[in-house]
TrEMBL record:
Transmembrane segments: none
Keywords: Cell membrane, Membrane
Functional note: Could be involved in insertion of integral membrane proteins into the membrane.
Gene Ontology cellular component annotations, sorted alphabetically: plasma membrane
Pfam families for the chain: YidD
Name of the protein in its database record: Putative membrane protein insertion efficiency factor
Membrane topology: Peripheral membrane protein
Signal peptide feature range: none
Record InterPro entries: Membr_insert_effic_factor_YidD
Family: Belongs to the UPF0161 family.
Species of origin: Lentilactobacillus parakefiri
Record's subcellular location: Cell membrane
Length: 91
């Protein structure tokens, strides 16, 4: 199941995504986040995490660095974001 979902995301990345301008507010992109979440947490939890990330990606959010956390959560990885901002000497 995990491999099927990853194949679907790769199909999206290759055939559908190039048709639209880049608009993802997060790094890594939402589709890359989904693939990583599926590999790290399996089909069910990874899909939930990826869908939650897609729902968070909208024009009213600040965005920024948000890697897949090592533990299952549907919320943003604030610890990694804060560590990244500190290493880059950002606010």
């Amino acid at each position: 199941m995990k491999n099927i979902l990853i194949s679907l995301v790769h199909g999206y990345q290759r055939f559908i995504s190039p048709l639209f301008p880049p608009t993802c507010r997060y790094y890594p992109t939402c589709s890359s986040y989904m693939v990583t979440a599926l590999k790290k947490h399996g089909a069910f939890k990874g899909a939930i995490m990826g869908i939650a990330r897609i729902l968070r990606c909208h024009p009213f959010i600040k965005g920024g660095y948000d890697p897949v956390p090592d533990h299952f959560t549907i919320f943003r990885n604030k610890d990694a974001r804060d560590e990244y901002r500190k290493s880059m000497h950002l606010k």
